[in-house]
Design brief:
The complex is a heterodimer of chains A (386) and B (389). Chain A is α+β, with helices and mostly antiparallel strands. Chain A folds into two domains: 3-45 and 253-383, no CATH class; 61-235, no CATH class. Chain A contains 15 helices and twelve strands. In chain A, strands 1, 3, 4, 5, 6, 7, 8, 9, 11 and 12 form a ten-stranded mixed beta sheet that branches. In chain A, helix 1 crosses helix 13 (300-337). The longest helix of chain A is centred in the last third of the chain and has 38 residues, at 300-337. In chain A, 41% of the residues are buried. By secondary structure, chain B is α+β, with helices and mostly antiparallel strands. In chain B, 51% of the residues lie in helices and 20% in strands. In chain B, a hairpin with a 4-residue loop joins strand 12 (332-337) and strand 13. Chain B starts with 5 loop residues before the first helix and ends with a helix. Classes of the chains: A alpha+beta (386), B alpha+beta (389).
Chain lengths: 386, 389
């Protein structure tokens, strides 16, 4: 066995330049594969981060239709509901459109109570609740724009016209890596007062209700109870778990996600072609050697093992290097993309799939040459000059 | 300087068929991805640009950016309607439409997954205002009724949106009385109904946009100035064509940036493949190279010969990839445009510019992959070569 291994090692690095080039190809392909899978994962991050103890109630028509504020009390009365808060999507622009990040007008005390994973210091939480002009932001967002507590943040409204300025009263840290730290929350009351003055008909309107429940296993029943409450009213509701709500956003861009996923497999096929080419060339050049081995009494299985072993060795070294490179590349990508992806982490499944891809590439690439070489005719092979 | 004949170069590729095919196959895949992405972003752009009509003007609330963010009160709408320069039809009615635009969350056929569909309230003049839209089946909705007509992509893609079916939203059942074809523009992904009926059903106080035809496209500046000068109006006017082009910007740019960066990463793999193949080609033909040089071919000729071989290889890959991508034109896809937050159906569009760009990219990969091996071949000494053979 050590003899076979030594032979494999010598064979693999006989053609240094070719092996090096193949390795470069493998490393690029496998790290790209890992990066693409991570991008797809990042898209689903909102779903992963959602809590099973929260339901989201929105207008049955679509998210762009508001619900009346008067639903708060009726929601609180529904059996199984432990807390109710609400949020409006603000859609403001910070300096330019490129600086996109989500902003929500929320009812502060109840909202923060429903989102315990947003870790705020007690004094910051109180300062936010007390200041109508205040806002709280996630750590990642604050770092991106260099905001500190006390800074003024001007946002240009698209849905709610005018320029709105908020004072940072707190910066939250996520309880877990998957927690969203790229949002800005401010007082719903401030928004509503301004609407009352300027566009009274748009006032007292809520984008979505966040409903806290104690027992996740009753989520379906509670959702039905809520929707039944408002059936056949002017504003019917559609209540779903937070993860289903988040998933409905992801499925909207499904076509793009499917394309990215398909592309991540295409790159594995490309590298398979490159690797197969390398192995075919290698085998052709060593025709005479294999014939000699066979003449010495080694069986066809030995020749096949030699080729498979060499191919797998190169593929696995490439795979390991690619895997090692994926982490820093993903880190750099996350830094460049900023708040576009709230969470960007290479999952263990991705790493496992990368190694699996390397394994598959290595064995598929060797299959055809191994089959051919194990069947060569000794006499012809010896006569052949590479 | 005498050049090495092209037939010699081509035949060399043929002799090593398996290797040539594998290398070209890798390149073909890269080119396929590159071309499809360009076609996709072109398709989105074309679909939305086609949606606009050259002499139509769209009026939105200042800074709204998209139709669903916008609001235009009845008073403001009446002021705009009375501006001079608006075209009229044969019966003297102004070609002017006050449109509420809302998003409606409807389940798709088959998967049942919900997606946002644009529902537009308009008038019976809609077909005159947008001449590209033609009724495909059934008839136009009757004013003042709960009837709707649906775009081709919606009728095919969403539950209850086909001819004769009913959709339930905003507390009413809406009967689909017609399906229209909008010539592969954005309207194919919309539902149209009577403007006033929609306003009541959705309890809206304000329209989303105003759309009107100009008597003469050159009057746009005058109309725009009149709207902006009026202190009662917090509105902005845009040529419809430009408005829809802006709606495609984010998604088309996103796809082309994503795709181009992917293609560049992929091309490294394919270039490495070409390089391996060409190095092997040089190594196995050392004797031939020596003979060529001894016959009087210069170093430059040998360099060009191997470079051309690499580029021919990549051209084969490029053509295969492009042919594969061309088939994608038959595929209809739809996704959510994140700028409007609504479903948009479109097709892959192959243009001559894309074909040229793709083939240039393929040749570039061949050039980069082939240069170092060709350089090495050209640098070999005649004596060494002949001795090696």
């Amino acid at each position: 066995m050590p003899f076979l291994f030594k032979l494999l090692l010598k064979n693999a690095f006989r053609h240094k330049l070719r092996t090096a080039l193949t390795l470069v190809g493998l490393v690029v392909a496998l790290s790209a594969f890992g990066l693409l899978r991570t991008i797809v994962d990042a898209w689903y991050a909102g779903v992963e981060a959602s809590s099973s103890t929260r339901l989201v109630s929105r207008s049955a028509i679509s998210l762009t239709f508001p619900l009346p504020l008067s639903y708060v009390q009726r929601l609180k009365g529904v059996e199984g509901v432990s807390g109710v808060s609400w949020a409006n999507w603000f859609g403001g622009i910070y300096i330019t459109e490129r600086n996109f990040f989500p902003q929500f007008a929320v009812e502060p005390a109840s909202y923060l109570a429903l989102y315990p994973e947003y870790k705020l210091k007690d004094e910051e939480r109180l300062a936010f609740i007390r200041d109508r002009q205040g806002c709280v932001v996630g750590r990642k967002l604050a770092d991106k724009f260099g905001w500190k507590i006390g800074d003024q943040i001007p946002l240009r409204g698209t849905i709610y016209p005018g320029t709105w300025t908020f004072t940072v009263r707190g910066i939250w840290d996520g309880a877990e890596a998957k927690t969203d730290e790229s949002q800005l929350l401010f007082h719903w009351g401030l928004l509503n007062e301004s609407l009352r003055k300027r566009a009274a008909k748009r006032a007292d309107a809520v984008g979505v209700y966040i409903v806290g429940i104690n027992e996740p296993q009753n989520a379906a029943a509670i959702s039905q109870r809520i929707d039944a409450q408002f059936k056949n009213s002017l504003a019917e509701t559609l209540t779903e778990t937070e993860s289903a709500f988040q998933l409905s956003f992801v499925s909207m861009s499904e076509a793009i996600l499917v394309a990215v996923q398909a592309v991540s497999y295409i790159i594995v096929i490309i590298i398979m072609a490159v690797m197969a080419n390398t192995m075919t060339m290698t085998a052709r050049e060593r025709l005479a050697e294999y014939a000699t081995l066979k003449a010495l009494g080694f069986g066809p299985g030995f020749v096949a093992r030699l080729l498979f072993g060499e191919s797998l060795m190169i593929a696995l070294v490439g795979g390991a290097l690619g895997l090692a490179l994926t982490l820093p590349i993903a880190g750099a990508f996350a830094a460049a993309a900023g708040t576009l992806f709230p969470v960007f982490q290479v999952s263990e499944l991705t790493m496992a799939l990368q190694m699996l891809a390397a394994l598959v590439v290595g064995s598929v690439a060797a299959a055809w040459p191994a089959w051919k070489m194990s069947r060569i005719d000794i006499v012809q092979g010896l006569r052949h000059v590479a | 300087m005498k050049a090495v004949p092209l037939s010699y170069i081509a035949r060399n590729l043929w002799v090593r068929r398996v290797t040539t095919l594998l290398t070209a196959g890798g390149m073909a895949l890269v080119i396929y991805v590159f071309a499809t992405v360009l076609m996709m972003s072109e398709g989105i752009r074309r679909t939305l640009v086609d949606t606009g009509q050259a002499d139509n003007v769209i009026v939105l609330r200042k800074g709204a950016g998209a139709e669903i963010n916008s609001g235009v009160g009845r008073g403001a709408a009446a002021i705009v309607e009375s501006l001079p320069g608006i075209a009229t039809d044969a019966e003297g009615r102004a070609l002017f439409s006050k449109e509420p635009v809302v998003l409606n969350n409807l389940p798709k056929r088959g998967s049942g997954k919900p997606s946002n569909v644009t529902v537009r309230g308009t008038s019976e003049l809609a077909l005159q205002l947008r001449p590209k839209v033609k009724m495909l089946e059934g008839r136009m909705f009757r004013p003042g009724s709960s009837e709707i007509v649906t775009g081709r992509a919606i009728a095919e893609g969403f539950q209850g949106a086909g001819l004769g079916e009913t959709l339930r939203f905003a507390g009413r059942d809406w009967l689909v009385v017609g399906v229209f074809d909008a010539g592969r523009s954005g309207f194919d992904s919309e539902i149209w109904g009577d403007s006033e009926q929609m306003m009541q059903a959705f309890r809206r106080e304000a329209f989303s946009t105003l759309v009107f035809r100009l008597q003469d496209a050159s009057q746009f500046e005058a109309v725009k100035a009149a709207i902006e000068a009026d202190p009662r109006l917090q509105l902005e006017a845009k040529p419809e064509i430009r408005f829809y082009a802006e709606q495609s910007e984010a998604l088309a740019t996103f796809i082309s940036i994503l795709g181009t960066s992917l293609s560049v990463i992929f091309s490294i793999g394919a270039i490495v493949g070409a390089m391996i193949t060409m190095f092997a080609a040089v190594a196995s033909r050392i004797g031939e190279i020596g003979t060529l040089r001894a016959l009087g071919f210069r170093r430059g000729a040998v360099l060009v010969a191997f470079l051309l071989e690499a580029m021919l290889l990549s051209l084969v890959g490029g053509l295969i990839g492009l042919a594969g991508a061309a088939f994608m034109q038959a595929v209809n896809i739809s996704t959510t445009n994140f700028q409007t937050f609504a479903e948009l159906a479109f097709q892959f569009q192959l243009t001559p510019a894309i074909a040229v760009k793709t083939l240039v990219f393929a040749l570039f990969m061949g050039f980069v992959g082939g240069f170092i091996p060709a350089w090495r071949a050209a640098r070999l000494k005649i004596v060494d070569c002949l001795r090696a053979a």
